[in-house]
Write a structure and sequence with these properties.
The chain is built from 11 helices and 19 strands. By secondary structure, the chain is of the alpha+beta class. Helix 3 links the parallel strand 3 and strand 4 (80-85). The two termini are 41 Å apart. 41% of the residues are buried.
């Protein structure tokens, strides 16, 4: 992807804000969430407390001196004015807004403290301007990925596949020398060596009975023969991947006890993938996988949603849940990850990322997901 094409994508995203329904309520926007600022400008200052002010064709990025050089070097939108804030950022913002005559300004209500909101509200009331809380404007735009985003996500998924391939190409004996946390560290090391920017979330390696806890944290427990669940992902140019595989080593008796559960989870996932397309609602897709697992007697053992959106954040909209009636649209990127978890026995989860298409979906992970026992 060349720089000119990427710059056009950033320009297009700004324009889309003014075609959203919320733009009828306000003529300007104050963006506070770091990933939303990155989405609109290409500047990503994690926990930087930066502010992006959008007023028609003019954009102002208010940053602390610590992030000033980074902002200057990363901004791709020529209409962004970078402003260094050494002291009170809200007072500086209000000063800029003195030159504008509009009456209402939208601010990301979920991303500002109550104290901050009241302070900014008071500063702007003196100018005859009203502060309006808005939520989800940028997040809603981010649900449908453009070609730049899809390219980066695909690269992140390729790295994840490569690392999983390295793990399963190891012998069972070499894996069984490691603890859960050592294997997690091994995975994260391989992610970095494979040209990623590191993990996209805390890597999960759950051995044996520990796999019944969906968001388990790996411990100093030696991996022996049996089941091992690995849930991991990476970042590539700030975009995430997320994949889960459940594999088996050594103890054939334990492995065979899980075969039935594994086959049910895999079938549920394949059914959801087969039915994933534009026009299907998130709740319908969740119901397809869940109904199959219920029919096999394990409905109470599938307690989380079928999936979630992935992009700049590893968990973003749309949430693929029983309750969410959001309609899937072309170029949304979601996970499909059913699971069955039995306390004091173990759990199986299989997760892939997919791109929603008009007549189906494209699975982004090519890693093996047949029942796999390592020698």
């Amino acid at each position: 992807m060349n720089i000119i094409s990427e710059r056009k994508c950033f320009d297009s995203r700004i324009k889309k804000i003014f075609t959203s329904p919320i733009s009828q309520k306000t003529a300007s926007f104050i963006i506070l969430k770091d990933v939303n600022i990155y989405y609109l400008t290409s500047f990503y200052g994690k926990d930087s407390e930066s502010i992006l002010l959008i007023t028609g064709d003019n954009l102002y990025l208010l940053v602390n001196f610590i992030y000033l050089e980074q902002a200057r070097k990363s901004i791709q939108n020529k209409n962004v004015n970078i402003v260094c804030c050494k002291k009170d950022k809200y007072r500086k913002l209000a000063k800029i807004l003195e030159d504008y005559s509009f009456n209402s300004i939208g601010v990301e209500g979920k991303n500002i403290s109550f104290t901050g909101f009241r302070k900014l509200e008071k500063l702007l009331s003196g100018q005859g301007k009203r502060l309006v809380s808005i939520d989800g404007v940028v997040e809603n735009l981010r649900t449908v990925k453009d070609k730049v985003e899809i390219s980066k996500i695909k690269n992140a998924c390729k790295i994840t596949d490569k690392v999983f391939g390295s793990i399963i190409n190891s012998s069972a004996a070499s894996i069984e020398k490691l603890s859960e946390i050592e294997l997690a560290c091994r995975i994260e090391e391989l992610l970095v060596k494979s040209n990623s920017e590191g993990r996209s979330f805390d890597t999960i390696v759950a051995y044996g009975k520990n796999s019944s806890m969906p968001h388990y944290s790996p411990q100093k427990i030696k991996v022996k023969g049996g089941l091992m669940l690995m849930d991991f992902g990476c970042k590539f140019e700030n975009y995430c991947s997320d994949m889960t595989r459940t594999i088996f080593t050594g103890n054939l008796k334990i492995c065979n006890e899980f075969k039935k559960i594994y086959d049910i989870v895999l079938k549920a996932q394949l059914l959801a993938i087969e039915n994933c397309r534009e026009g299907v609602t998130c709740s319908q897709l969740d119901r397809i996988a869940r109904k199959f697992i219920i029919s096999k007697g394990y409905g109470n053992n599938f307690g989380h949603s079928l999936g979630h959106g992935v992009g700049i954040e590893v968990h973003e909209e749309p949430a693929v849940t029983m309750q969410n009636r959001t309609v899937l649209r072309e170029n949304m990127v979601i996970t499909i990850e059913p699971g069955i978890y039995i306390e004091n026995f173990g759990g199986v989860r299989i997760e892939d990322m997919v791109i929603v298409g008009k007549n189906g979906c494209e699975v982004l992970n090519n890693s093996k997901k047949s029942f796999l026992i390592l020698d």
